[in-house]
Amino acid sequence: MPTIVVDVMPKAELLDPQGKAVTGSLARLGHGAFQNVRIGKRIELTVEGEVTDEVLAEAKSIADEILSNGVIEDVVNIGVVE
């Protein structure tokens, strides 16, 4: 069964406290090449049958209305994995 993957990230202009904490930890552990970390979420929606344009449009609607908080998050990707 195909799976639709939705990636959601905090808006770029907002502070990401989890990402900031991980950035600090990486530096303390000697991984100084990484200057910034942002942490988001991945949501997988399993689909029965074929993923049509209509199904993808419905997934986008769900992502915008339910899976993300439009005030503080952006839906950055919606894709299909088999």
How do the strands and helices of this protein lay out in sequence?
Elements: E1 3-10, H1 17-28, E2 41-46, H2 53-67, E3 73-81
Structure explained in plain terms:
The structure is a single chain. The protein is an alpha+beta fold. Helices cover 33% and strands 28% of the residues. The protein has two helices and three strands; from the N terminus they run E-H-E-H-E. It has helices spanning 17-28, 53-67; strands at 3-10, 41-46, 73-81. Strands 2-1-3 form a three-stranded antiparallel β-sheet, with helices on one face. The longest helix has 15 residues, at 53-67. 7% of the residues are buried. The model has no long low-confidence stretch (mean pLDDT 96).
Brief sketch in words of this structure:
The chain is of the alpha+beta class and 82 residues long. The protein has two helices and three strands, in the order βαβαβ.
Please give the share of residues in helix.
Answer: 25-40%
Rg value: 16 Å
Residue fraction in strands: 25-35%
Note the main sheet: 3 strands, antiparallel
Instruction: Write out the strand line-up for the largest beta sheet, numbering strands in chain order.
Output: 2-1-3
Indicate the low-confidence ranges by residue numbers.
none
Looking at the structure, what is the overall shape? elongated
Any descriptors?
82 residues, alpha+beta, 3-stranded antiparallel beta sheet, 2 helices
